[in-house]
Amino acid sequence: MRAPRRAAHPRACAVLVAAAAACAPESRVVEPAAGPPTLPAGSTAPARPGLGLAHVAGASDPADAAVPEAKPDQLDPDGDDDAVPCGEGPLPAHAHFEKVGKAPLALRQICDLAPLGDALYAAHALVPLGADGATITRYRPSDEEKPFTVAFNWNRPGEPTKGGGAGQGFLRVHLIDGRLFVPDADPPYNGFGISDFGTEGYVFVSNPSGGFAGARRPHQRPPAAPSPEGQAGSSVLPRAYHVLDVIRFRGRLYASTGSVPPEEHAWRGPSPGALHVANADWSRWTYEVDYPYPWLDGVWRLTFLARFRDRLYAGIQDYDGREPNDYVVFGPARDSSAIEHEDVHAVRVTAAGAAQTLRWYADSGRLYWIAWGRDGVRLRVTRDGDHWTVIPLPPEAGAPTDITRFRGSLVVLTERALLSLSDAGPVVIATVDAKKSPFELRDILCGAPLAVFGNELYAGGQRQGELYKLVADEP
């Protein structure tokens, strides 16, 4: 990983996001008891006023308390992607995961999955922000002779590797307005000097058919700029060290990054997390707002994004471990055309703070949050966006990695099981019996994702980049 002013990045565990389609009402959950949050001694990052301190599990406002439903004139749908089909028919009572196969150039981890047309696309990484390797693969089951192909290769074969000769992971592939958007989590050489800012990142955009423009010769440079009219290509993000996620919010395209703030210089001084916004022709994304502010000496990143009740949620990663908050909420006024510093609110939910957001998922007026904290990986839910309830899962299932709606039920993938959420509690649909699970949660930036495609449920492997499908057991 090429992080400003640092040489290494601690690895831990991670997860992904899913589409925001609402297909049926979901189950109730029970909130266990927990103590009140306290700030760690010596914290330097400011907690921001405006939204109030979110409650930990066991606080006085449970997620199932009556709250006003979303107004009909809500500006944005909740979630992070275009709505996609959730599948039809009954959920299997007993099932197992079968290995479908893997694509050429499939790397160790599948970090995200997104369907488009007749194909399922997978974002791959070897070691996110730590080792060269970034590909997008395509699974098209209708092509029986060659169902797996490479959609985009950012490994840059034959180019110098000093300074990182390839992208170091694709962590998200998002379906937005019928196109695939893929942020380059850690670009080669910290950029190619296209923007003259000392460092820059990229977002790769497909055409409406899922085709990506290839790297340009000579020297495997980024493709030319994409266009809203349909041309595939790559956008440049001046000042970005890392680009971790992309979302549409209030009619604009935003990317979450770790960046160089205005009037500062790359590779020294503060490095806050930031949001960049795309210009009209998608050729360039401009630094708009950041966290923490005022800037502090150190390295922050804004990570994964989600819309909920007309606010934008972003995970926080603090390189030095000083951050007392868990995530940031951006709440601009309804008539605002931009996000200002007064719209930024840091929120503390967990007792110890500094939880790493692995996945957001919006469904039927609720927001689900999978985060890795000092007490382990927890799945939480909120109905108002401020008060959270922990959803208890069986300890033997391992850590949760993703959640989505499939055939009318909410299902949760964990390291060793697929669970359906019910009024009586989680119900086991499938288990992983292998000694080493393909869904083991090993990285804070990449974990096993779920996706519904062709009325089937798929999961991405974390050991050899293989794709898995849920198959009903014989009665």
Could you explain how this protein is built, in words?
- The chain is mostly beta strands and 475 residues long.
- The chain has a single domain, classed as YVTN repeat-like/Quinoprotein amine dehydrogenase (Methylamine Dehydrogenase, Chain H).
- The chain has strands at residues 95-101, 109-116, 119-127, 131-139, 148-153, 174-176, 179-183, 200-205, 233-238, 240-249, 252-259, 273-278, 285-291, 300-308, 311-318, 327-330, 344-347, 356-363, 366-373, 376-382, 389-390, 400-406, 409-414, 417-422, 425-431, 450-453, 456-460, 467-472.
- Strands 1-28-27-26 form a four-stranded antiparallel sheet, with no helix packed on it. The chain has a four-stranded antiparallel sheet with strand order 2-3-4-5, with no helix packed on it.
- The chain is globular, with a radius of gyration of 21 Å.
- The N and C termini lie far apart (49 Å).
